[in-house]
Amino acid sequence: MKLFRSITTEPLCHFFILSLCIYAWLQTNQHTDEKKIVVTKEQQKHLTAAYIQQHRRIPTKKDIEHLVNAEIMDEALFQQGLIYQLDQQDPVVRRRVIQKMNFILEAQATPMSPTLDKLNDYLESNLDSFSGETLYDIDHVFFKSDQGQQSIDKANETLAILNSIETKALIIKSDPFIRGLSFNGLSISQISNTLGILDGKSLSALKSTKVHQWIGPIQSRFGLHLIRVNDVKQPPVPTLKSHRHEIYAAWKKQEKQQRLAQLKLELLDEYQVTKSTGYDQTLTQQQVHASGAVSHVATR
After folding, report:
1. In this predicted model, what pLDDT tens digit does every residue of 33-71 receive, in sequence order?
2. Is 112 contained in some domain?
């Protein structure tokens, strides 16, 4: 009895008992929080809407009861999984959390409506993005390239004649071209598609060609072409009035991307990042075969 009294009067014993009480209290409260499941009216509303969308009919009272019970079971399994820490080191859960965080940051990054001055400044800095394409009226003389050098020589001879006289009479010497010999209002990309010209240098030369001057021969996937530009139609200068919707959409996208990048940098600043060094990125032959990757290791 004296021994018991002496032990219970020791400060260390008091500290031990108090620690046990605090631990028991924490465990009880944690246990209570984790085992609590609440199905709100809003959740039931979403469950009903999902049921209608899937089954194309209004759920009965029994259907709703089944939906709610299934939701309760899912929540119980989810909470129990969290207790078992099944969400830890799970790549699928990690991707979903990252995706949701991106959604949150994107919502925060959405800019307020800009002033007219801001939109005008953006337009001035990005005029080329909103300008239409230059359009060309062209004629062309076509030569099949099945005769090799003879076809090239014939095209060059015809080019010299066409540039020395003011006549269209010689255009009848063109080989047949199923898509026609004259085109109006084509952009450079449309000329490329129509005539089958894939060489970027030839298309660039066409842009700088003087009106009524023949150039060529230009190789296409169909043959050889001599081309004359008859007229060039420059696009009108874009204004905020004519392109307001496009300008606002482009400004909003750029502003949102910049703000999102800034928010991510600010988030990253809150963390201490450590990068391990000295990692050998070379896969062993066994790892290559196991992953199904193509090995570039030379065999001797």
Report:
1. 558 888 898 999 999 999 999 999 999 999 989 999 988
2. yes
Q: Are 245 and 123 in contact (CB under 8 A)?
A: no
Helices of type H across 110-148: 116-125, 127-130
Residue-level pLDDT at 232: 92
Cα gap 146→164, rounded to integer Å: 27
Cβ burial 185-208 (10 Å sphere, 16+ → b, else e): ebebeebbebbebeeeebbeebee
Clarify whether residues 155 and 123 are in a common domain.
Answer: no
Total domains in the fold of the chain: 4
Q: Would you state the structure tokens that stand for residue 64, as one six-digit string?
A: 């709703």
Boundaries of domain holding 55: 37-88
Residues 102 and 138 in one domain: no
For residue 32, is pLDDT > 80? Answer: no
To 10 degrees, what angle do helices 116-125 and 244-268 make? 90
pLDDT in tens, 255-289: 999 999 999 999 989 988 887 776 665 655 556 56
Residue 257 within any structural domain of the chain: yes
Asked if residue 238 lies in contact with residue 123, where contact means CB atoms within 8 angstroms, the answer is yes
* Residues 199, 223 within the same domain: yes
**Which amino acid belongs to residue 94?**
R
- Bridge partners of 134, per DSSP, are none
Residue in 234, 41, 240 with CA at minimum distance from that of residue 124: 240
Q: What band does 29 get if pLDDT is binned at 50, 70 and 90?
A: very low
Residue 295 placed within a domain: no
When comparing pLDDT for 166 and 209, which is higher? 209
- Is 100 inside any structural domain? yes
Whether residue 217 sits in one domain with residue 160 = yes
